[in-house]
Amino acid sequence: MNYLAHAYLSFHQPQVLVGNMISDFVKGRKQFDYPPVVQQGIRLHRAIDTFTDQHPATKRAKEFLKPAVGPYSGAFVDVVYDHFLALDATHFTETGLRSFAEEVYAQLHSNLSLLPERFAALLPYMSQQNWLFGYRFTDGIEKSFGGVVRRAQYLNSSAEVFDLFVLHYDALHEAYKAFFPELYQYTSTQFNALLIQ
Asked: N or C: which end of the chain has fewer CB within 10 A?
């Protein structure tokens, strides 16, 4: 799950952030149990996911990882994109990313009552282990890959997909560079429209 991208594309709006971060934990009509601005964040998350999945660069990136993880390749590409976003000087300095991560954790903790039980349970690990900042480092990506495997029904190991990530690092970086500026432009220009749908 690309938590860093979803947090960043919430544009510093706390309840939009909550919705954007919890969307994968909120199924069907459960979204209507939340305040309107959180619902807007949930819709924003889903629009981001649709744009990401349909982008030609994402389709190319998946092909590099499919030999190891088959149909789960998209989930791993999401993590890969967060790695390159964390290193992208257009968006973050190292210090800026560290500060942004702390801001996100603080906002999520201050809205704890709105978080689904499963997300609330992982938030202490996310903040204590500083997942958002950890995306800068390949060992952080290796750990995140392990988390994807634990949630996947038919995967047993992340070793092979991590090896493919390292092998195709430059090509995956090129995919990110072709993809993320367009996602950012799409999300920022459509932000208000997405929020009122």
From this structure: C
| pTM of the model as a whole | 0.94
User: Which residues are within 8 A (CB) of 56 and not within 5 positions of it... i.e. 6 or more apart?
Assistant: 178
Cβ atoms of residues 76 and 145 within 8 Å: yes
- The answer to whether residue 182 scores a pLDDT higher than 80 is yes
- Condensed to tens digits (0 to 9), the pLDDT of residues 53-68 reads 999 999 999 999 999 9
Would you say how long the chain is, in residues? 197
Domain count, the chain: 1
**Euclidean distance between CA atoms 80 and 135, whole angstroms:** 9
- Per-residue pLDDT of 107-121, as tens digits, reads 999 999 999 999 999
CB 50 within 8 A of CB 57: no
State the residue range of the domain holding 134. 3-196
The alpha carbon of residue 63 and the mean position of all alpha carbons in its chain are separated, in whole angstroms, by 19
